[in-house]
Amino acid sequence: MDAERFNLVRGAILIFAMRMCVAQQTSDFDGTWLLRLDGQNIFKLTLATERGAVTGSLTKPKKLIIDQDGDVTAIGPDQVTLPVQKSKLGAG
Question: Collapsing DSSP states into helix, strand and coil, what is residue 43?
Answer without folding.
Answer: strand
